[in-house]
């Protein structure tokens, strides 16, 4: 439960209740006011140092449908390094 200095007579809402209330009120607003709410939430995130989680490189490329197998990687290595001069030790 969230209690931000609530008085004894105030009803304390759960996080889920707050989210639902905010969504209900947000949906009742015109689009320009919804944008203002979004801008304000983003401002609060910046102010509190909250950053959205970063996606991994694999996650960023997941929707491209690229599937590289171990064999593909091995073949690319052979092609790249096949003619590279080597010193015999």
Backbone shape: elongated
Order of helices and strands: HHHH
Q: What level of helicity do the residues show?
A: 40-55%
Number of helices: 4
Distance between the termini: 68 Å
Derived from helix and strand composition plus strand pairing, the structural class reads mainly alpha
Number of extended strands: 0
Q: What is the CA-atom radius of gyration, in angstroms?
A: 27 Å
Number of domains: 1
Largest sheet, strands/sense/barrel: none
Mean pLDDT, rounded to whole units? 82
Which ranges are low-confidence, i.e. pLDDT below 50, for 5 or more consecutive residues? none
How large a portion of the residues is in β-strands, by DSSP E? Answer: under 5%
Secondary structure layout:
Blueprint: H1 15-28, H2 31-47, H3 57-61, H4 70-81
How does this structure look, described?
The chain is mostly helical and 89 residues long. It has one domain. It contains four helices and no strands. The mean pLDDT is 82.
